[in-house]
Design goal:
alpha/beta; 16 helices; transmembrane helix; single chain; 5-stranded parallel β-sheet; Rossmann fold; about 475 residues; binds 2-acetamido-2-deoxy-beta-D-glucopyranose; membrane; transmembrane; globular
Length: about 475
């Protein structure tokens, strides 16, 4: 529309004026490209340092702005960034190499020179964030390596490209000396200048969790990439949310996320049956078109009381860590054969677990890719709530229906088909999937209008 109006107006003005408009347009382009950071310049890539430091220069033209995440913040200064994990209150002063270590930092802030090149990962949730940003090969050291789901990280581990932290402290100290930072602590560690605490999995929302891409990106000057990957996952998520809600049944199925805590030394040998209350599970359920089951109390001392509480639930997500099949489920929750048909989730065969994709040692991809790939996670959940969506042949990644005895997909080193390719979200493109096509309205940007106008006027002037 904007374009059409523009062209018609040009048609009506005199030849001289047409040139005038073209010049204005060109000027507008030039000024914009200088003023809008990212078009004219970018952050220094990994292997470059500042030469000829000038205190007045802004060394970070590419910036990331935190939109929805609540557990981290980023503040830019000319040659350094203050990145804060707000859950642990740990502050990282990331300063550009070739510029001075910043003075007058907040108490306890850890100065870290960027870009970091070699990193250790002590929690598997960091892996997909680094991989989506294109920095899988920066991972040189791993802890909890038995639980890694990423095929290419498993493969690098097998080939020795990635080393493993052991319980030999001497060896660990040598290994850690070779990395710039270690991602994955859940608590601030002021004694270790390289330890970077993370909290992506606790940030209360699906997009909040995805936005931790920006946190990781600051260490690599890769904010432009983070903004791009985050923007795409978020847009795809919003599209799936619309799709699910447009097609939601009038009576939304009730989804309960439940857990059985078996008697152990950690609970004085007292079992309990629980209903989850987590912000991201509620949001995921509702955005998928379901109703999140919430009740008081959330924890029960007998399975009979628990079963009474969930008697009207339509769909179960069983988060019990041990017990991978339907027989285990019935036994853990005390559902006897004669009781089974009383429950809609049994009759409807709607009992799911989060172990749809694991490594050969039961290392859960749910704790890895599902945190960073919010759009793919929503697709899985939509299919749980409404098995005809997002498409009839949809193959869930993480949520596995044990009532239908679905198999676990094993993610091993053999699944790393291209070690040089970085990870992308496993979600389908929602715009392509949307049966009715959501009719995405693309507002023609001013730049584009101007460009078309220039072409049009030039064309008209030359040939008429
Ligand atoms: C620990 O590692 C160091 C360095 O490789 C080695 O010299 C030492 O023998 C190791 N200690 C044990 C108990 O294996
Ligand atoms: C890995 O490859 C095997 C063999 O092709 C396949 O059966 C399995 O589903 C793959 N795993 C994943 C997570 O895609």
């Amino acid at each position: 529309m904007a374009r059409l109006t523009f062209s018609i107006n040009f048609n009506e003005v005199s030849g001289f004026l047409q040139y005038y408009v073209v010049i204005i347009c060109a000027f507008f382009f030039l000024v914009s490209s200088i003023l809008i950071p990212g078009i004219s310049s970018q952050n220094l890539p990994m292997n470059q340092c500042v030469t000829g430091y000038n205190a007045d220069n802004d060394y970070f033209p590419d910036k990331a702005t935190v939109e929805t995440a609540t557990l981290f913040s980023i503040n830019y200064f000319k040659s350094y960034k203050l990145v804060t994990n707000k859950q642990t209150n740990e502050i990282f002063a990331l300063y550009q190499c070739g510029t001075p270590i910043p003075a007058n930092l907040p108490a306890g802030a850890k100065p870290i020179q960027i870009s970091v090149k070699n990193v250790a990962v002590t929690d598997t949730s960091a892996i997909p964030f680094l991989d989506l940003l294109g920095f899988r090969s920066s991972i040189k050291l791993l802890d909890t390596s038995d639980l890694v789901s990423s095929p290419c990280v498993q493969s690098a581990k097998d080939s020795g490209t990635i080393s493993i932290l052991t319980n030999n402290q001497t060896l660990n100290t040598i290994e850690l000396a070779g990395v710039d930072v270690s991602f994955g602590a859940f608590q601030a560690n002021p004694a270790d200048p390289k330890s970077v605490s993370i909290a992506a999995a606790s940030d209360p929302g699906i997009i909040n969790r995805v936005e931790w891409l920006k946190f990781y990106s600051t260490f690599f000057n890769a904010e432009a990439k983070a903004n791009d990957v985050y923007g795409k996952i978020k847009a795809n998520y919003e599209c799936y949310k619309n799709l699910a809600n447009k097609n939601a049944p009038s009576a939304k199925p009730i989804v309960a996320w439940v857990n059985y805590d078996a008697p152990s030394e950690f609970n004085q040998n007292t079992p309990s049956w629980q209903i989850a209350d987590a912000a991201f599970k509620k949001q995921l359920t509702e955005d998928a078109g379901g109703a999140y089951f919430n009740v008081t109390p959330l924890s029960y001392a007998t399975s009979a009381d628990f079963l009474k509480a969930i008697q009207n639930v339509d769909i179960i997500i069983d988060e019990t860590f041990v017990g991978s099949n339907i027989a285990d489920f019935y036994s853990n929750f005390g559902i006897t054969p004669d009781q089974q048909q009383q429950f809609k989730f049994v009759k409807n065969q709607a009992i799911y677990r989060e172990d749809g994709t694991t490594n050969p040692n039961d290392g859960r991809d749910w704790l890895e890719n599902a945190i960073a790939m919010g759009d793919a996670l929503l697709e899985d959940m939509i299919n749980v709530v409404n098995p005809k969506l997002p498409k009839s042949d949809y193959n869930r990644i993480w949520l596995r229906n044990i009532a239908k005895n679905e198999p676990i997909k094993i993610s091993s080193a053999a699944n790393c088909t291209n070690p040089d390719q970085s990870l992308t979200s496993k979600a389908d493109d929602c715009a392509a999937v949307s049966a009715k096509g959501t009719g995405a309205i693309s507002s023609t940007p001013t730049f584009f209008s101007c460009f078309i106008a220039i072409i049009f006027v030039t064309f008209v002037t030359l040939f008429i």
